[in-house]
Each structure stands twice: as structure tokens, then as C-alpha cells.
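Try this one yourself first.
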């Protein structure tokens, strides 16, 4: 847990850092240093640099949206959100890095896109919850969604294990070990949501948050397994 600081100020630091980084990338999106290490073409390097630049700009906009929302929260709510933001950052980074398809720059762009999708969904969830569109409590929902998650998780692992046994996986491919380690980060992320939800929306039971986020993760794992073929 990080020491308490107003979330608006915290996110302002993120925005400033990203803006400084983006300032070093001109409108032409110059080649990334990745070109030297991966021996990829200048055209591919420009494509990657542009993707990185666009991702930085998009994240700065997300941080401003979150900061504007969090500015009106209580000290406890802001602290819980800071913890949630940390857990989200760890899980999203691992998922984007270890649960996306490989191959040179295409893999890097796929990772950037995967991370952006997770970040977009995170901000959208905060915004809709603030509008009153929150998880609906249900006595058996968490059991149903946990069961669905377990099925999706083990289905994903089985598909990966089968590919590993066939030996037809490209270098850098998703592995069972990577998915398992990412799942540990997801569990911390889920509980951070529960704590934040309890502080910000005390009328919503803890299991309603667990049921919702477990459903989201089950869908993510199922789709990843289906895409892998």
C-alpha cells in the first residue's frame, strides 16, 4: 500500500510524465530503438513508435478523466482507489505482456493494444459505476461466476498445454506458467476492487463485486483460448 496522496495529484504526475515522454516523439513518429535490437525494418519501427505515442496520449486522457472523478471522493475512497490503480497496473501489464500473441513488432503492437483495451475498460467501469450502473447483488451469483471462471481458466490452460506438448509454439508464445502468474495478479486486482467498492459504494455487497469481476475475467480467458485455436 502506498502512502496516501490525493488521487487527482497522483494522476497529474502520471499525466505529466507521459506528456514529457510524448514530447520526445515528433509528428513523424521516428524509428524506435527497438529497430536496432530486433533487426526490424524502419517502416515497422515507425509503426511501433506511432503506436507507443498514441498509447501515451490515450493514457494521459484516461488519467485526466479518472482524476476529475476522484477529486470529489473522501480520503479513504481515494486511498482505496490508489491501491486499486496499483493492482490494475500490475495485472494489466502482465496480461498484456504474457497473454497476447507473439512475433516481432506485431507482438509489441498487440501488447500495446491489449493494454489499451484493459485500461479503457477500467475507466469505463469507474464512470458507469459513478453513474449508478453498478453490479447487481445476487445470493448465488458469485458461486456461478466463480464456477464459470474456473472452467474458463482450466480450459485456457489445457489449450496451452496441448500446444506445448505438440511443440508448435513460436518463440515468445503464451505459456501456462505465464497465465498462472498473471492469474495471481488478477486475484489481487479482484480483491482491490472489492475493497474500493466497499469504500465507495457501501450498499453493494462484496460478493457482487467478486461476481462481476470474475465474469469479466472468465470472458477474457475464454476469448483468449478461442483465438489461440
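Now uncover the answer:
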Amino acid at each position: 500500500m502506498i502512502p496516501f496522496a490525493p488521487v487527482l495529484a497522483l494522476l497529474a504526475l502520471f499525466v505529466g510524465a507521459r506528456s514529457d515522454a510524448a514530447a520526445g516523439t515528433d509528428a513523424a513518429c521516428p524509428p524506435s530503438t527497438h529497430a536496432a535490437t530486433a533487426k526490424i525494418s524502419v517502416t515497422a519501427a515507425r509503426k511501433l513508435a506511432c503506436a507507443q505515442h498514441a498509447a501515451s496520449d490515450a493514457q494521459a486522457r484516461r488519467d485526466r478523466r479518472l482524476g476529475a472523478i476522484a477529486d470529489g471522493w473522501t480520503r479513504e475512497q481515494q486511498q482505496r482507489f490508489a491501491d486499486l490503480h496499483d493492482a490494475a497496473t500490475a495485472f494489466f501489464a502482465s496480461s498484456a505482456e504474457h497473454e497476447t500473441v507473439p512475433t516481432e513488432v506485431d507482438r509489441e503492437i498487440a501488447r500495446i493494444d491489449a493494454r489499451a483495451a484493459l485500461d479503457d475498460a477500467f475507466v469505463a467501469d469507474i464512470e458507469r459505476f459513478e453513474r449508478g450502473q453498478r453490479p447487481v447483488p445476487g445470493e448465488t451469483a458469485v458461486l456461478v461466476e466463480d464456477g464459470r471462471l474456473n472452467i474458463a481458466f482450466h480450459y485456457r490452460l489445457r489449450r496451452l498445454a496441448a500446444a506445448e506438448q505438440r511443440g508448435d509454439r513460436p518463440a515468445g508464445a503464451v505459456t501456462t506458467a505465464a497465465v498462472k502468474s498473471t492469474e495471481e495478479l488478477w486475484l489481487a486486482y479482484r480483491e482491490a476492487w472489492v475493497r474500493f467498492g466497499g469504500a465507495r459504494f457501501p450498499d453493494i455487497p462484496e460478493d457482487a463485486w467478486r461476481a462481476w469481476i470474475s465474469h469479466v475475467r472468465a470472458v477474457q480467458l475464454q476469448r483468449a483460448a478461442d483465438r489461440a485455436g
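Discussion: Residues 42-70 form the longest helix (29 residues). The radius of gyration is 19 Å.
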